[in-house]
Design goal:
Elements: E1 5-10, H1 14-21, H2 23-28, E2 31-37, E3 41-42, H3 44-52, E4 61-62, H4 64-70, E5 74-77, E6 80-84, E7 89-92, E8 97-99, E9 102-105, E10 125-127, H5 132-146, E11 154-159, H6 163-190, E12 203-208, H7 220-232, E13 235-238, E14 243-247, E15 250-253, E16 258-260, E17 263-266, H8 274-278, E18 283-284, E19 287-290, E20 302-304, E21 309-311, H9 320-339, E22 353-357, E23 363-367, E24 370-374, H10 375-393
Parallel strand pairs: 1-2, 1-9, 2-5, 9-20, 10-17, 11-12, 11-17, 12-13, 19-21
Antiparallel strand pairs: 3-4, 6-7, 7-8, 14-15, 15-16, 18-19, 22-23, 23-24
Bound molecules: flavin-adenine dinucleotide.
Length: 395
């Protein structure tokens, strides 16, 4: 088949999943449709549930290669280094290049691991992105918990007191409870039903927040309520402290404190990812600057959506919700560009529903100043997240 134009989608993010689902519309229009991403789509919405042991890992992944091929597209399993807009090509990690007529970036952000000095490849360090790392974290903690040669408590430090850090800490607490309960049950079968509750002392879990309180963007009362919940679950919260560097088995903070660790989870924010920085297109500290039609303000052939995009004149929190909202506009505008039609505009909502999974069957839902905590919040999140993924799993 001869194609008139080539669209390259870089990154299997939330917005691109929807564009890929509608890929047949592109091939019908004579467009070659190429997706470049290092692997599957991993869904952050269910990732902490996987960490907590609530969901099987398979639930959290979408096979983007199959999804792409099913709609007649081509999938290249690779990361990109950068876009060269003046040549209309992208450079892949192996230095090969791929030409495009239109390119769309949905590559998310990066955890600023350089903010905590020390060996970035230290196996005890777990950045929360890419999301696949959260599955590795689950396995690592389970192995430590099941290692009967470790006699002292296992020290887990979560750096970051925002929504992600709180969700991760709560989910680790739930994982510890589930793993130890399973062990206790197994052991108790062999010892006449005696349950040794002292096993619960095997873990010390600390949450470090650089801010005066956790969940600084949430309503104050909601944050206080979550703080009480975490304390009840034996999570120690240390505020106004900034993890700075690793020395031996300790993580040192800027205010001179130090905490022993076996596992350090880095949930200390996001930065603009390297391909955006290298691409010689305007960006700010939030991402590639795009106009209301999701095109780079300097080059109408380059689109961006989700965490890697910075819609001009806005300051959006980094949330998958925005990438999902941008998805249908991005799909429409990519096709409209090929066919020479008027593009649609993205107008972000000021308030979005955010729900944290607290790992134990409860959650915290916030919408602007409104919030509620409990089982209903978790059930709502579970329903929304499964529905979102179902669209792409059953395609
Ligand atoms: C633990 C955790 C829980 C979260 N929970 C929620 C939640 O419940 N609700 C919510 O709204 N937000 C949540 N977030 C935030 C959410 O994950 C992000 O806002 C969202 O993932 C952004 O989506 P995206 O589509 O922009 O990019 P991503 O989902 O990050 O996808 C980026 C894709 O690009 C690929 N990629 C990266 N680099 C390259 C490259 N160089 N070349 C090619 N491909 C590349 C990646 O492999 C990935 O497939 C959570 C974040 C974390 C860490």
């Amino acid at each position: 088949m001869t194609f008139m134009k080539r669209i390259v989608l870089v990154g299997a993010g939330h917005a691109h999943l929807e564009v890929i689902r509608r890929g047949a519309e592109f091939t019908r229009a004579g467009v070659e449709f190429v997706v470049v991403s290092p692997g599957d789509f991993w869904y952050s919405g269910l990732a902490t549930g996987v960490l907590a042991g609530l969901y099987p890992v398979e639930l959290d992944r979408v096979d983007v290669g199959s999804l792409t091929r099913n709609v007649g597209g081509r999938f290249i399993s690779a990361a990109i280094e950068r876009v060269i807009p003046e040549n209309r090509e992208i450079v892949l990690a192996d230095r090969s290049t791929l030409a495009y007529d239109f390119v769309s970036l949905n590559i998310g952000g990066s955890v600023p691991v350089e903010k905590i000095q020390g060996d970035p490849n230290d196996p005890r360090r777990f950045a929360v992105k890419p999301i696949s790392r959260i599955w590795n974290l689950h396995k690592y903690i389970r192995e430590l918990l099941c290692d009967s040669t470790i006699e002292r408590p296992i020290d887990i430090v979560v750096a970051g007191g925002g929504a992600t850090g709180v969700e991760i800490a709560a989910s680790i607490a739930a994982l510890v409870d589930r793993t130890l309960e399973a062990r206790v049950t197994a052991e108790s079968l062999g010892f006449g039903g005696r349950i040794d509750r002292t096993l619960n002392r095997r873990v010390s879990l600390k949450l470090l927040a650089a801010t005066p309180r956790i969940l600084i963007d949430a309503p104050a009362r909601a944050a206080e309520s979550i703080e009480r919940t975490l304390l009840k679950r034996d999570i120690e919260i240390i505020t106004n402290t900034y993890a700075d560097r690793i020395e031996g088995d300790r993580v040192l903070t800027r205010d001179g404190r130090s905490f022993r660790f076996d596992v350090l989870v880095e949930a200390n924010g996001l930065r603009v990812s390297d391909p955006i920085i290298r691409s010689n297109l305007p960006y700010d500290d939030s991402g590639l600057i795009v106009d209301e039609t999701l095109r780079s303000i300097a080059d109408p052939l380059v689109f961006a959506a989700g965490d890697c995009a910075s819609p001009r004149g806005t300051k959006l929190v980094k949330a998958g919700v925005y990438a999902v909202r941008q998805a249908s506009i991005l799909a429409f505008n990519l096709l409209a560009s090929v066919e020479g039609r008027e593009p649609r505009r993205f107008h972000p909502r000021k308030k979005i529903l955010l729900i944290l999974n607290l790992g134990d069957g409860t959650g915290l839902a916030t919408w602007g100043p409104f919030w509620f905590q409990g089982r209903a919040a978790f059930r709502l999140k579970d329903r929304i997240d499964r529905k979102f993924l179902d669209q792409y799993k059953s395609h």
